[in-house]
Structure formats: structure tokens, C-alpha cells
Amino acid sequence: MTSIGTGYDLTNSVFSPDGRNFQVEYAVKAVENGGTSIGIRCKDGVVLACEKVITSKLLKAGANKRIATIDRHMGAVSSGLVPDGRHFTSRAREEAASWRKVYKSPITTADLAGRMGGYMQAYTLYSSVRPFGVTAIVAGWDSELELPVDGQVGSGPSIGSGGKAKDKKYGGPGLYMIEPSGIYWGYYGAATGKGRQTAKAEMEKLNLAEGKMSLLDGVKEAAKIIYVAHADNKDKEFELEMTWISNLEGPTKGRHQEVPKELLEDAEKLAKKALDGDDDDEEETKDENKPAEADKMEE
Amino acid sequence: MNHLPQSWGRPRDDIYGAYDHSYLQSNGPNQHTQSPIVTGTSVIALKFKDGVVIAADNLASYGSLARFTDVKRLRSFADSSIVGFGGDVSDMQYLDRLLSSLDTREAYCSSGHSLNAQNLHTYLAKVFYKRRSEFSPLWNQVLVAGLDAESKPFLASADLLGTTFSAPSLATGFGAHLAQPLLRKVAPDEDAVAKLSEEEAVQAVKESMKVLFYRDARSLDKYSIAVVTKAGIRLKEDEKLENQSWAFADKIRGYGTQVN
Amino acid sequence: MFRNNYDNDSVTFSPQGRIFQVEYASEAVKQGSVVVGIVSKTHAVLVALKRNAEELSSYQKKVISIDEHVGVAIAGLASDARVLSNFMKTQSLSSRLTYGRAIPLERIVSAIGDRAQTNTQHYGKRPYGVGLLVTGVDETGPHLFEFQPSGMTQEMVACAIGARSQMARTYLERNMEVFVECGREELVKHGLLALKESLAQDKELTVENCSVGVVGIRGEGMKTIEGFKLYDGQEVKKWVDLVADGAEAEEAMEVDS
């Protein structure tokens, strides 16, 4: 690494002569060593999934959740330094709560991403702090309906708040990824952590930009991606954790919740099967699995 | 006419006399709420063997004006408790948002929700007491209905002073005078509560709501009623008082539409 | 003077994305004497090895009661532990005052976790030099959490931290399947046996150098909790005797493994 020994990489908020902030780049290194986290934006909801590497046999199985609820309709997961991820979460919760206090309505995913992007960027500005050692993925469902204002007690005028363009769709799924530099983008499928390259490659196959993926398919794909991304790190055991937010008609009614146990186990089973099949013939297993999944959806 | 901007929105001096500027004085002690503005009247509640029934009408009055007639004064919390609000409606909305943020905070924990009605009542009482100690009271009296830590029926009140009280039946506002005696007849003590069925309790509460509508001039015949049990909350927000009989008022003359 | 340029403070990442100051702080935990924690379905126990600075001084307190339902064991800088345990006491008390509710374990643990994280991200602060084992009961039953200077907190079924704690952890890993069904007495015994694994050659458990803390539930719900009880001095004798070297202890060891 050319930066080492130049002295420009010892302090946060300092540019090197070629215009880089090395401390931020080093923070990214901490992220790249963390467990894989992904998010998939589907047409009727969003899925978050993460790989929790089991660091000790003595850990309580199923406890130690990594995906956090930010507000009722929003969740976040991060890769990198776990305590930094908790800091991110608690700030995000404060932002969501303060938004509600001011506007009496839930924060949109885009707005939260903006606020948190700003917050993380502030930690690259001063020599008195260090950047966040996490990249976070934020997922939410912004209501497409006219929601009552927080604390509303009567039905109020029936014409709604107005000021809306005709034929324009409001609300919907939101998925954003925020990096240690404070930069953030919206995604159809986001991945970070150790297995991000593999995960990205898998997600690109899904044609998420078409907006046809259903949430239930998304859950299964997410599980599969985490399993595939973990395959490069096979010697270590891991736990899969998944949460989702559906639209108001869907299974979570617009709330951020854990994916139900049976569904999670189903998805894991399919993921393992797909992974075993991958070794022999990738294409064939895929074709076999697709109709089976489609059948499940119909139920 | 005086067209100067500082006179805009004030009563005309030539008609009402000189404006009393003492109201606008910025020196002197700071004053907060001195009286409620838009108000809800009574809330009544009664414990029975497996839960609590609670009711309040859907009216928000502005003085003697029946200003809003679809106001929901029973607010549910975490699908396990009901808070019934009497008093200032905007303070009720503030408290409702406060409880909603508390609910959101509780849901962060992966182990799930654990604030029961008793915890909620303790919390509300502390909020009331803190605000009254700041001389900025939240002008309400509330009834909290639900279950306690041992899953037994729980009912308690808290008010703008931070006073708390608990009994087999409770009523706020006019209800304390008009409905409370009726409810006490049904459930004088905890032993009676242990024998009271849900149907009997609902019946007693509905009867009391009717009496309140007969006698309380700030009440409405549209009301909300909720039953809280271990199974959860059944909340109905658009009920109408049935089988009203104004026979008792037959001989009363000189009020309302019957002017002679 | 320094091992490298990146370990002067906790606001500097190394090129590999490590924060050396935080890693050094965890070394301080390994300097502390060993503490062990285990949970079963009904109980959570803490056992600790106490040290005295010199022959004539008293032994450093290792197990602290926080509230009726929570207790902690410490390894590392005891003064840092006191800051954290005082903070926990405040948090716990405020929950009882505001809601009339015993604070859920996950909450109190993440409160100290968040506090410790702040110390790793701001210049002029230093990470806490102490590790904690937090045990307690709440509505969801008994719990054991490990807290590290990095701010990392994890729920465990059993855990040991401090000097030579690897041996105790090995014991715990070997026996972890049986813990869940253990009663109060059995659980303490496993804790003490794990602790003994980590003792230096010439050391043994005595009433002077051993502390035991137990908390549990009697039946369903919070009303029947068995509050956190700390055994020190003569009170701890009955536990120490349980695993004293001798025929009885040998037998116990065999049953357990």
C-alpha cells in the first residue's frame, strides 16, 4: 500500500497530495472483513439478509440479532464493526423519531438515507473522530396510501392532503446503502461485507431492475445469495438472519419484521439444495428449482 | 378605522374600547396552559372477571359548542392496553404520539413487547406529574385499562396533577358523579369483579353511557367502547346509544326544542 | 515507543481496518482474574476468582449486584467496571421508577455497549479496559451476556473471560449441552469446575478468593424471581466445599463429564 509511511494516512480529515482520505479507505477495509449483508428491493416489499459468522460455540443460537428496526416500516443491517453498526442504528432511530416529531408522519427511506449519509460524512470531517467502520443497508416501505397523521383522532376532511400529481405513483419500496465516506445510493439489490462480490454477481442475474421480483421470491433468493456468498468462507459456521417489509396488503402490512421461522427454514432448505446442485451442474438445478418455487407462491 | 398593521386582528377600539395590552405583556411570570380548550367529557370503565370494559363518547367540545363529533378518545397501545382520555384533546393527541413513540422504542428489542397496562399507567402518571411540576400541565384525566404483570385485569386513573387511583370501576369528568354510582352497584369490590361476566359488564357500561347522554350537556350518543382481555383488544369506535327513552323528560318544559 | 504508527489512539484505523487501541484494551481484560458465567433454563450463575494485590490487602470485588434481577462479574480494570456498573444501576433504577418495570436484560446490556462504542470513536477518550459478564432474569427468562471493551455485546449460554480463561472455556464447550437442564446447585458446580480449570498450578479455591452470584426464576412470570444473591466470604464456603479436592469432587467431575 503506497499510503503507508507517507504520514497522510494517520489522521482522519486529512487529504493526501493526490486527494485521498486514507482513513476512510481504511474504514472500508474493516467493512470488507465483516460478514456479508444484502438487501433486495422487490415489487411488493424489501428483504434484508445477513450472514452471522459463529465466532464461538458458546454463543446463544438465534439470539444476537444483527438486523435492526429503525422505525415500524424500516430496518437496517450493516457489515463491519458491529458496535459501529449499533451506533448507526441508534442514530437512525433518533432521526426517524425526530422526523415524526416534526412532520407527524413516518420518514421515507430516501430521507433517512439522506440524514444518515450526512451523519456518517460528518465523521470524515474532523480529526477528533474516526469514520464509521460499517457500510449499512437501509430498507423500508413508504406507504402508498394516504396515512392518518400521527396522533390524528378524528377522520378529518375526506379529500386528503392534496398537492399530488395525477398518475404519479407515491410510496413503495426503498433500499439504500450508505458507505463509511457518507456516500449513499439507491439500489435494486445491495450487498456489502466479505462476500459482496459473489452476492453482487448473483443479484445481477435476477434482473431486479425490471421490478418483477415478488417479495416471497426475494426471500428465497436472498437466502440463496447468502449461502452462495458464504461458500468462499466454508470453514466457518454461520447463521442466516432475514427480515422483510411488505406493502400494506402483504404479510407484514408495511411493518419491518423478522421473516417467519417456517419461511426462513424453507428458504434455507432451497438455498442448500441450490448450493449442492451448483457443484454438479448450475444451469440444470436452476431450472429444476424455478417451477418448484413458483408452485409455492401460488398457495 | 385604524389600518396600521399592529391593529390587525384586534377588536376595533371605536366599538370595543381601548385594547387591553396587558394580555400581550412579555414581562412578568411565564404562563403556560391555564385551562383546556377543546375538550372531551367522561370516560368510564369497569373491570370484570377476565378483563376490563372501557367507553367514551366521540365528541370534542369547544366550550359549549359540539365542535367535533368523530373524535376517537379510546387509544390502543401495543394491542394490549387501552387509554381513555378525558380533558384537552390537543394534549391527548400529544400523549398519543408520545405513546406511539414509546411503542416504537419497545419494538426495537428483539425479545418483543413487555410494557403492560400497569407499566403504561406508571409512565403516564410520571409524565403528568413532571408536567404539572413544570407548571405546564397536560390537561387530561385518563383511564388505563388492560392487564397487569400477572395477567389480571388492571384499571387505574391518572390526571393532570399526577394523582393516581385504582378501583373496580372508574369514571372521569361528569361520569364520576353520574356513572360511578351505577357502576359501583354492579361491582362494589374485587370480589364482585371476580364474579362479573363480560356481558354484564358491557351492559352496565352501556347503560351508564346512556345516563351520561341524558344528563351531560357536553356528551354525544355516538361513542367508542373497548373490551380488553388476555385475548387482546376488541375496540368499536362507531357505536350508537340504543333504546333511548326520554320519557323522564316528558314533563320538562322550557329547554331545547320544546319551548313551551 | 509504539509498535506502529496506528496504535496511538482509538480514532485511527490501521491500513487493515483495525483499531489497535481497542485491541489493546481487550488485553487489559486478559490481565484480570478469571470469571465464569453459565445459564440454564431457570438460572444464571456467575463465579469469580478474586485476587489480592499483596498478602495483607483485601481481595478485589469481582461480582457486583446491580438490581434485584441483574448482577455482573468483571475482569480487567475494576475502576472502569465501577463506572459501568454505576451506570447500569442508574439505568435499572430509572426503568423501575418510570415504568414500574425491571429493565429487560437486552436493554441494559446494549446501553453499556453503546456507551463503550462512543469511547472508541472520539479523540481524547479511551476504550474501557474491562470485560463484563452480565447475568439476570427478565420476562423472557434467565440470560447471560458478554461485554467487551469494543462495545461488542453478545448473548451466550456460557462464557469465561480473564486470565487463563481459555481452559475454562474449553470446559464449558465440552459440557455446554447439559447446562440448559441444570438446577441451581448443579449450575454453580459447573461454574466452579470451569473456574478451577483456569487456576494456576499452586492455587485452589478458598472462601477468600472465590465469589458466586446466582439469579433465577421459580416459576412462570417475573413475580416469582429468585433475586440476585451474592455469596462471598463464609457464605461461599458451601459452594467451595462442593468442588473441593477429594473423593467427593472426583466423583462429581466424573458425573459431569
UniProtKB/TrEMBL annotation, chain A:
Compartments where found: Cytoplasm; Nucleus
Gene Ontology CC terms: cytoplasm; nucleus; proteasome core complex, alpha-subunit complex
Keywords assigned: Cytoplasm, Nucleus, Proteasome
One Pfam family recorded for the sequence: Proteasome
Domain Proteasome alpha-type subunits: 8-30
Region (Disordered): 267-299
Residue stretches of biased makeup (Basic and acidic residues): 267-276, 287-299
Gene Ontology terms: biological process: ubiquitin-dependent protein catabolic process
Family membership noted in the UniProt record: Belongs to the peptidase T1A family.
PANTHER family (UniProt xref): PROTEASOME SUBUNIT ALPHA/BETA (PTHR11599)
Name recorded for this polypeptide: Proteasome subunit alpha type
Organism: Calycina marina
UniProtKB/TrEMBL annotation, chain B:
Main location per the UniProt record: cytoplasm
Keyword set includes Transmembrane helix: no
Gene3D superfamilies named in the record: Glutamine Phosphoribosylpyrophosphate, subunit 1, domain 1
Localization per Swiss-Prot or TrEMBL: Cytoplasm; Nucleus
Record-level GO BP terms: proteolysis involved in protein catabolic process
Keywords assigned by UniProt, alphabetized: Cytoplasm, Nucleus, Proteasome
Highest taxon in the source lineage: Eukaryota
A Gene Ontology term for the protein's cellular component: cytoplasm
Family: Belongs to the peptidase T1B family.
PANTHER family (alphabetical): METALLOPROTEASE TLDD, PROTEASOME SUBUNIT BETA
Job description of the protein: Non-catalytic component of the proteasome.
Name of the protein: Proteasome subunit beta
Taxonomic lineage from the root: Eukaryota, Fungi, Dikarya, Ascomycota, Pezizomycotina
Automatic annotation (TrEMBL), chain C:
Localisation per UniProt entry: Cytoplasm; Nucleus
Matching Gene3D superfamilies: Glutamine Phosphoribosylpyrophosphate, subunit 1, domain 1
SMART domains recorded: Proteasome_A_N (SM00948)
Coiled coil (UniProt feature): none
One term under GO cellular component: nucleus
PROSITE patterns: PROTEASOME_ALPHA_1 (PS00388), PROTEASOME_ALPHA_2 (PS51475)
Domain Proteasome alpha-type subunits as annotated: residue spans: 6-28
InterPro entries in the record: Ntn_hydrolases_N (IPR029055), Proteasome_alpha (IPR050115), Proteasome_alpha-type (IPR023332), Proteasome_alpha1 (IPR035144), Proteasome_asu_N (IPR000426), Proteasome_sua/b (IPR001353)
Domain of life: Eukaryota
Keywords annotated in UniProt: Cytoplasm, Nucleus, Proteasome
BP GO annotations: ubiquitin-dependent protein catabolic process
One Pfam short name: Proteasome_A_N
Family affiliation: Belongs to the peptidase T1A family.
Subunit-structure text: The 26S proteasome consists of a 20S proteasome core and two 19S regulatory subunits.
Protein name: Proteasome subunit alpha type
Native source species: Calycina marina
